[in-house]
Amino acid sequence: MYKQISIDKYIPKKHQHKVDEFFKDSDGCWLNLKEGYISAHTEATSLHEDTINEVRKQLNTIILECDFEVMTRSEISKFLKEN
Fold first, then answer.
1. How does DSSP classify residue 11?
2. Which of 8, 15, 30, 73 suits 56 as a labelling partner, its CA being 20 to 30 A distant?
3. Are 67 and 36 in contact (CB under 8 A)?
4. In which order are the strands placed within the sheet that holds 19-25?
5. Other Cβ atoms closer than 10 A to 68
6. What are 44-68's pLDDT values in tens digits?
């Protein structure tokens, strides 16, 4: 069983267009990204953390998949350090 979490309430407007679904279940909070976006931190199209605040801290790691695919490992590392 899971509970939807309000994107409008918890996700800053500048990131809302990247988010498809946000919910909480017995394993924590899940944020599924819209098609075309990926988290550079997890290299996945979803974020999973224990709390809403931990998910929010990861929002700056979301980039366009096409941009991520052409980045080198050192560019990804630099991007993550800056965000």
1. S
2. 73
3. no
4. 3-4, 19-25, 28-33, 46-49
5. 17
6. 999 999 999 999 999 999 999 999 9
What is the distance between the alpha carbons of residues 33 and 54, in angstroms, rounded to a whole number?
16
Residue 63 belongs to what domain range?
3-82
Q: How far apart are CA 74 and CA 9, in angstroms?
A: 35
Is it the case that residue 17 has pLDDT exceeding 90? yes
CA distance 80 to 57: 12
Buried b (16+ CB within 10 A) or exposed e, 2-28: eeebeeeebbeeebeebbeebebeeee
**Residues forming a β-bridge with 24:** 3, 29
